[in-house]
Amino acid sequence: MKRWKRVLIMGAVLGGTFTAGVYAEDVLQRVEAYLRPDFSIVLDGKAIQLEGPTLVYQDKSYLPLKELGNMLGVNILWKGDNKTIYINSRINPEQPAEDANTTYEEFTLRSPSSQMVTYLGSDYPLLTVYAAEGSTGPYYRLSDIRRMGIDTEGLKKSKEKLTGELYVSDGEARKRWGKGVTPSRTNRDNYVIAGELNSDKTAKLKDYVKSTASFKIKDFSYTTRPIMIEKIDGENRYEYLVYQTMYGRGNGYSITQSHYFRAILRLDTSGFGDNLTYTVNVESRTDLNDELEKKENQKAEDSANP
After folding, report:
1. Do 17 and 81 sit in the same domain of this protein?
2. Are residues 212 and 174 part of one domain?
3. What pLDDT score was predicted for residue 113?
4. Rounded-to-5 percentages of helix, strand, coil across the chain
5. Do 168 and 230 belong to one domain?
């Protein structure tokens, strides 16, 4: 039976009974309660059926916290390490899209990194960057902030030139999330694979990152630094942001070039059952620095020839 099916809203009296045996005996208290399957529950005028019956203790009714919270659109999370139940209201989970015609202050990313962070008890992926044009920062990706359920309406947004994505500065984010977020765990890989829960798929993606960390093509050597891999909803496809450096000699000159790339990775499957295997293939790969240079050259040409 899952832990949350045992969690009841029991106030201070039953606040320590989530998992028997976890606490010392002197803080446990045995009580007598009754299950009432004959009780009906109506939510917003509609009768609902919970998985278990209502529990009655000292003439008060108690319902399963996790199940009821989900029906009310509340994020419920149990953390066993600090024995705490986190109850977080979801602010604007369906937030309006930004107006495509809005003009944003632009910057070019510097030192991007991804990590898992904890906000109100839950863990989320967060892409953090700095601005190459100055020492301001950090900036947090807007889509990650929204994923946390934070209302971003009214916050000043900035547009990153290479990726075209919107960000909010640390100062703007703190207007809504207070003291901010904390790293949820040590990120030994120095990058995050977001949205993928299948351990076999995650392992295969990590193998791909490791195998492409460095390689050589003719007289040029390449090193790659992964920034973030993010699952594209509903498919075995992933957006991969990576920083790659090329160095070598060409036409008698030493050449070193570092660019950001965005790739779309696809996991193809073969076999079935316990013999199912995954293969990583690259659907597309875009040099973000080259794309930005082309756009800026075209803009300059259009301005010169109206």
Report:
1. yes
2. no
3. 94
4. 20, 40, 40
5. no
The predicted-structure confidence for 109-126, as pLDDT tens digits, reads as follows 999 999 999 888 788 899
Residue 274 — very low, low, confident or very high, per pLDDT cuts 50/70/90? Answer: confident
Burial class from Cβ neighbours inside 10 Å (0-12, 13-18, 19+) for residue 236 reads middle
| Residue 292 resides in a domain | yes
Does residue 35 contact residue 50 with C-beta atoms inside 8 Å?
A: no
Q: What dihedral angle (degrees, nearest 10) is formed by the CA atoms of 181, 185, 202, 243?
A: 70
The secondary structure element, H or E, covering residue 199 is: helix 199-211
Supply the range of the domain harboring residue 20: 3-89
Give the pLDDT band of residue 55 (cuts 50, 70, 90).
confident
CA distances from 46 to 50, 81, 266 (A): 13, 37, 43
pLDDT value at 18 more than 60: no
Cα distances (angstroms) measured from residue 285 to each of 260, 264, 282: 10, 7, 7
pLDDT for 15 equals 32
Q: How far out from the chain centre does Cα 252 lie?
A: 46
Q: How far apart are CA 242 and CA 225, in angstroms?
A: 6
> Rounded to two decimals, what is the model's pTM?
0.70
Q: Is residue 128 part of a domain?
A: yes
* Residues 258, 237 share a domain: yes
Q: 188 lies in a domain?
A: no
